[in-house]
Amino acid sequence: MSDHQNKNWENTFEMSKQLHEQRMMMVTDFELDLAIRKGLTQGKKTEGDVRKRRTIFVAAAAMMSVFMIFVASIRVSPAFASTVRDMPGLNKFVDLIRYDSLFAKAMEHDFLQEVGISDTSEDTVFTVGSILADEDRILILYSLKGPKVREGKANDYAAYELTNEKGEKISEQQLSVLPKEIEEAVDTYEKLDFRLLDGQTMPERLILKVNMVGHHYEIPFTVDKKRFAGMREIIPVDKQMEVDGQKVIIDQVTITPLQAKVHVTADPNNTMQINDLIDVRLSDNTDYKRRMETVQGDLSTGERTYFFESPYFCQTESLTLEAKGFFMSKRDQVFTFNTETVETIHSPSPHIVLDKVEETGDQMQVSISAEGIYDQMEYPYFNPFVQFFNEDNTFTDAAGKEYPMNDAKLLMWANSSTESHEMTFSIPKREYKQPLSFKVKEYPGFAKGEFKIKIK
To answer: What is the number of other CB atoms lying within 10 angstroms of the CB of residue 163?
Structure first.
């Protein structure tokens, strides 16, 4: 890898590290309840869903004891237990998915495909060990071995890309921020979960491209598509949810062994901007409610796909989509402010105000708060992932001259009595023609509604 390419990757890793640190400050009960609304799979925000886990597997001397703990820790069928027993050394990759009932069920139905293909960078070896795949999703189980791995130096930050054999991207890039602290000198065993972009189907030949600081790997491998041939159910729905005259259409649901996809579109005649569905879930005849796992697309500009745990192997007789309303806001809003007087001139909401302007070196740090915006609501549908700033991250002065915002970010605090957002960005320190303004992408707001849309 060239010095220029390496520098680009280092910049990417630094961005993902900063986002990781921000999100560690943002974890609340509300976030857990509305988890992963705008993750990596939202195409325009590649750095939006940072993965930050490392699974450390320590090979046990007493293999049967580990196996008994494994079987006792999850409710699995004898067929699955038999599958695990037949794997040499228990197959360390199995440890990565043993607590996930969906992947355990897929393994029981012979979806695990052994790969065993490696690439080497210096004395570090990256191996794609096994995969679980269907037409729309693939779980890649990999290992990273070498002395630098055991020293915690080879894989602090990583970026992963999945392409077809022509090099065409079929899924969004994934970024990882991995902890430096390693309690014991062990090799790394981890998993990568790729959901294919809308309109893509699983190729037979794939290439996993991996970039870590100072290391680059490319692993081509084959997917046995016969394992899941014909295992896709497409259910036309064409039903709508409506709140305050605003409509969202549930187009169709696609079910494969590893996921369920719900595709929705916003009515183009809506007068408000629909940003998302609130607390969206899939429920079946057992009253088990599957929470939304991640999304693709942008409902505010037209359409979005919601991804759920698959009911494929559960012999579900009925399926219902539930939601509690819409996150929505007025269209084409502008925030106007004066950095000299620290004054809010115009805001989408009286709760959203310029809070403070602080000088830091050659920059001015601008902070905008949205506190108490939910305080009068019967139930605070708190949205911790508001995309307040527009994609271009620019502002204009009173003369219409455009300038870039730097380090635009959202911070969020919540407890049992109050919730607040703080939006911050920095601008070069200079004398601007006041006031300043920028376009608002979306802001905290919602409309309540109880929906149960029968899918089948």
So the answer is: 18
- Condensed to tens digits (0 to 9), the pLDDT of residues 382-396 reads 776 788 898 888 999
Buried b (16+ CB within 10 A) or exposed e, 313-339: ebebeebbbebbbbbbbeeebebbbbb
DSSP string, 258-316: TEEEEEEEE-TT-SSEEEEESS-EEEETT-PEEEEEEEEEEGGGTEEEEEE---GGGT-
Residues linked to residue 444 through DSSP beta bridges, in sequence order: none
pLDDT in tens, 209-258: 998 877 899 999 999 999 999 999 999 999 999 999 999 999 999 999 99
Distance, in Å, from the CA atom of 200 to the CA atom of 305, rounded to the nearest integer, reads 13
What is the reported pLDDT for 45? 34
CB neighbour list of residue 40: distance below 8 Å, 6 or more residues apart:
46, 47, 48, 49, 50, 51, 172, 173, 174, 175, 294
Question: Rounded to whole angstroms, how far apart are CA atoms 257 and 313?
Answer: 7
Amino acid code (one letter) for 357: V
Among 283, 287, 279, which Cα is nearest to 321's? 283
